[in-house]
Amino acid sequence: MGWDPIRKRPAGTVTPNLLDYERTRADFSWESARRQLTGLPGGGLNMAFEAVDRHAAGPLRDKVALRCRDRAGHTAELTYDELRRATNRFANVLRSLGVGKGDRVATLLGRVPELYVTAIGTVKNTSVYAPLFSAFGPEPVRERLRLGDVRVLVTTPQLYRKRVEQLRESLPALEHVLVIGDALPGTRSFSEAMATADDEFTIPPTSPDDMALLHFTSGTTGKPKGAVHVHGAVLAHHVTAAYALDLHTDDVYWCTADPGWVTGTSYGIIAPLTHGVTMVVDASDFDAHGWYEVLQDEHVTVWYTAPTALRMLMRSGAELAKRYDLSALRFVASVGEPLNPEVVVWGQEALGLPVHDNWWQTETGAIMISNYAAEDVLPGSMGRPMPGVEAGIVATENGRLVEVTDPEAVGELALRPGWPSMFRGYLHDEARYAKSFVDGWYLSGDLARRDAEGYYWFVGRADDVIKSAGHLVGPFEVESALMEHPAVAEAGVIGKPDEVVGEVVKAFVTLRPGHEPTEDLRSELTAFGRRRLGAVAPKEIAFDQHLPHTRSGKVMRRLLKARELGLPEGDTSTLEVGR
């Protein structure tokens, strides 16, 4: 799109963990990286031990691990040793209930301290942690509890009444519900159970291949998938947080991802704690002033957030950001959907820092491709593969997958299996899992291109790409071009069937404050699109101030298309409501 690179800044007081990309890749091995972790005293590897217990046994014992802000702005802190003892108590609660290795424990909670205690205590007990979105309705909750064979659910009395109580009889595997607050019929008080539990616990022998996490992903239609992750994934969490997020022990780190999403676990719980950072947890919903206050008041140094949130901040203007003291902030990263180039540049203007995009999926378990602290940022690029990760662009030729070597050619983004956080299955669905791997590649379902320097550029989901008059149109490219117009805050692009050209490009546009949805503006945007994109510019533009998003921040193009064509909406369980 013609954006100039944003040049790397001098290292200043913090030297980036990854200084020389090519040399680090050449020298890297997962076997040698394993020495960065301690391992259980008796052998084996347990996520909870690496995240909490090893720090509590050393000089970080009394350092604040979690600084939790409630909706009223009140703060509660847990040191690494206090977190060790609290998670020990929860592990003992599970033992008292007869819950052990491999048994599934789910949370239906917002960002409250009990969620973090539950997650870490569960994997400490060698049980399996399965986070759920607190905004799920009853049917998505039932579907996931049923699919996951969940034995224990931790939630609030309010969520239990609204989401679970009426479904309880249809979930015979769900034996125990612990609620944060006063117990209801059929439940037990979380705090009462914790009060009588011992705060010492010996982590059972744990293999790196033992199941630790179960993350649910939504399909375009039908049922969710349960992606299985193992304790060995903690190695990838730790390494990628060092390289892609540039985490150092002295950092104050804030990840805004919803705890029901994979990022909310991988980089909202496990990875940052393995680095011994102080992690900020904020229970409040998005608010531009409130988020800037968190960054300022908590002296956040590393911030990991979503493109949608950044675009919403961008709507408020760079001037708002400059009212706050953000001088502690040294690194900003984003994930959840491709990051529009304009947002990267806005970060430099408003925050004094570029936003570093990265790419990964629920199935990969950890960041696979990233922009790095010590390198120039190419606005719009996902970056280059992590050390230890082999990526490629592949296409089918003569019935077999081949790697596309022509720079700029579009194909499917694929990875060679073998990284530690690779998912190990879809629960109860071996056939679906097997289809994810072809000819020695894991197929991501994302279309991308790789330039001559090895940077990857997102084009679109394979099922999102628009075929119009012989052109293959990536919706992300069109959306990014429209966002360059000063009136446009966000855009969602789909292909609309057309008898002549196959599909025409239709854009749904959210306007910035101060702009009205007029026919003159529609004509102006159409002309602007033609100047920027030529033949692949949108032929139709609709104004929509409430584009549908998933709770991970992605514009739901599939839902836009279904509504446009009057088709069934499919699985909308991860649709974000109340925006």
TrEMBL record:
Tell me the PROSITE patterns matching this sequence.
Answer: AMP_BINDING
Q: What is the enzyme's main class?
A: ligase
Annotated AMP-dependent synthetase/ligase domain residues: 55-427
Q: Does the keyword Ligase apply?
A: yes
State the UniProt keywords alphabetically.
Acetylation, ATP-binding, Ligase, Nucleotide-binding
- Which segments does the entry list as coiled coil? none
Q: Indicate what this protein is called per its UniProt record.
A: acetate--CoA ligase
Q: Which species is this UniProt entry from?
A: Lentzea flava
